[in-house]
Amino acid sequence: MNMSMNDIPFTGTDRTFYDRLFASIAEEMGSTLARTASSPNIVERRDFSCAVFDPQGRLIAQAAHIPVHLGALPLSMQAILNAVPEDGPQADDIYILNDPYAGGTHLPDITLASPVFELEKEGTLAAWLVTRAHHADVGGMSPGSLPLSTELCQEGFRIPPVRLTAEVEALLFANVRTPNERRADLRAQRAAHQTGTRRLHAELRKHRPARIARAMSELREHGRRLMEELIRQIPDGNYTHTDVLDDDGQTSEPNDDSALPINVTLTIDGTQAAVDFTGSAPACAGSLNAVEAITRSAVYYVFFCLLSTPSRLTSEHALAHPPRNAGSLEPIRVTAPLGSIVNASWPHAVAAGNVETSQRIVDTVFGAFAQALPDLIPAASQGTMNNLTVGNAEVGASQPFAYYETMGGGMGGRPGAPGLSGVQVHMTNTLNTPVEALEYAYPFRIAAYELVADTGGAGAQPGGDGLRREYVFDVPASATLITERRQHAPPGANGGEPGCVGENKIFRDGAWHPLPGKVQVRLEPGERLSIQTPGGGGFGAA
User: Fold this and answer.
1) Phi, then psi, of 469 in degrees rounded to 5
2) Nearest-angstrom CA–CA distance, 526 and 102
3) Cβ distance 380 to 363 under 8 Å?
4) Which of 443, 421, 446, 420 is nearest to 433 (CA)?
5) CA atoms of 473 and 451, how far apart (whole Å)
6) How far is CA 258 from the centre of its chain?
7) What three-state secondary structure class fits 315?
8) 3-class DSSP state for residue 332?
9) Eight-state DSSP code of residue 203
10) For residue 267, which phi and psi values (nearest 5 degrees)?
11) Digits of tens for pLDDT over the chain (542 positions)?
12) Helix axes 179-207 and 12-36, enclosed angle (nearest 10)
């Protein structure tokens, strides 16, 4: 008797196998991207993400890369599908976008998507492969493309979802400060797609297309069931919390009046969760605005944290293989009012919304969850990515450079464990950039790199300490800092103390001078820039 693939039972072991298989394809794509790229931001910091989608553009699996990228990719994929011609994609097509108002995050994050077709049925789509990488410069009003902007056009070259052609590449490279580096990094993304295609074709030969399609469907359904079970364990009710951003980067003297509130109401009803940001600040004059893709990404991250954390909320099987696919997002409804700081409309600037507002959204949603689950939710972590972009200050410099990095800080104290020190938290998952790599590639030196003791909040489980990085410049340079938690400290939880705020300083004319949390500054040879990151809040009374 002949059996179709749909008649063959699909077991828990099968589910685990295929979940790991698709994730391994995404991980191998990432390995290729890191090995073949040019910029330290991608090679060393691993500021990129890779994922596998089904033929309908639904997320199936992702590598353990950058949370702020991955949660936004589903909207990017939908924007790309809307740009595909009616006769469908072709085998060699690659689509590109970085438009924050079409599923992107901010302009430096360039997304590529390519179709993968079945081998035996010409023209039958089997999957989509997606990469997103942060390019160190895509033009705009300052090196590094994270300026203190007031509209999107100031932030760099904007790419709507289009098919990647030689002409599109030429337009991109003509609008950036470091075209050779951009060319190499974009080729590395292409190479990652070639790796993913080879791997997926190998699995299609081994497991047959019908079985692969069945596995994708089963994994989505499994993700939905597990997320519903997680939500069922949370007490029903409405939980409201508000946190603030220090300022919008345009206010000359930040104070409590310049703080930007983010308000959330979390509603748990059986197996469904609603996350409503009504009451948040209107879109601001600076670049702290987040687009809808960013807000959704931050919300999904919080739920994935709960699904992945050993607790009474999750089963042992769920912990072993936490789902991160389209099905696991279905029970979560996000409402972000259009025109607010969590769902800005064009042409508002958004460069810092991706890196800073995403962190505060996480803090706010965790704050709401702390009311429902006070014994499970940790204290606030540093709540910022401490963004530094730096490049040549002189027009026509013989060796142009542009560099971007984020810095670790204190993790919040947790139930049963103190916070870690000097680590990236929440929406960023990048690695440390080694001092040797920086000094080899760029005309500046690192004079100090150290943890700063006692900057974490006191508590039964103290918060982790922040760190300090000090740069000495050998050539004239233009640096832009976009940092948070310089005015409002990361709060503690359950009686724990807040962590210390961060501090930015410049050494010139024989003395240290304080700098705002968001500032662009020119640095002359020999001048120093010091960035001290916040500590995490403490958990429980000391």
Assistant:
1) -125, 130
2) 43
3) yes
4) 446
5) 22
6) 26
7) coil
8) strand
9) H
10) -115, 120
11) 344 555 566 777 888 888 889 999 999 999 999 999 999 888 888 889 999 999 999 999 988 767 777 678 899 999 999 999 998 999 899 999 999 998 888 999 999 999 999 977 777 899 999 999 999 899 999 988 989 999 999 999 999 999 999 999 999 999 999 999 999 999 999 999 999 999 999 999 988 899 999 999 999 999 999 999 999 999 999 999 999 999 999 875 666 677 899 999 999 999 999 999 999 999 999 999 999 999 999 999 999 889 876 555 655 444 445 678 999 999 999 999 999 999 999 999 999 999 999 999 999 999 999 999 999 999 999 999 999 999 986 666 677 888 889 999 999 999 999 999 999 999 888 888 889 988 988 999 999 999 999 999 999 999 999 999 999 999 999 999 999 999 999 999 999 999 999 999 999 999 999 999 999 999 999 999 999 999 999 999 98
12) 150
- The amino acid at residue 518 is K
| 426 sits in which H/E element | none
Q: How far is CA 207 from CA 73, 200, 232, 528, in A?
A: 27, 10, 35, 58
Helical segments of 410-537, H only: 435-441
CB atoms near residue 105 (< 10 Å): 30
3-state SS string over 260-281? EEEEEEEEEECCEEEEECCCCC
Separation of alpha carbons 33 and 49, rounded Å: 9
Q: For residue 64, give both structure tokens.
A: 């353990």
Residues 6+ apart with CB under 8 A from 318: 226, 229, 230, 307
Q: Provide the token pair at 265.
A: 């109401």
Enter the tokens of residue 538: 């403490």
Summarize the chain as % helix, strand, coil (round to 5).
Answer: 30, 25, 45
Beta bridge partners of 266: 239, 275
pTM beyond 0.85:
yes
Tokens representing residue 507 in the block: 């050494």
Which two three-digit tokens encode residue 67? 């949370």
Q: Hey, which bits of 420-525 come out as E strands?
A: 444-451, 467-473, 477-482, 503-508, 511-515, 518-523
The set of residues, in sequence order, having a beta carbon less than 8 Å from that of 209 and lying 6+ positions away, is: 118, 120, 121, 124, 126
Q: C-alpha 214: how far from its chain's center?
A: 30
* CB-neighbour burial class of residue 221 (10 A; exposed 0-12, middle 13-18, buried 19+): middle
d(Cα 355, Cα 357) in Å, to the nearest integer? 6
Reading the block at residue 416, the tokens are 């049963």
Q: How far apart are the first and last CA of the chain?
A: 69
CA distance 487 to 516: 10
Total length of the chain: 542
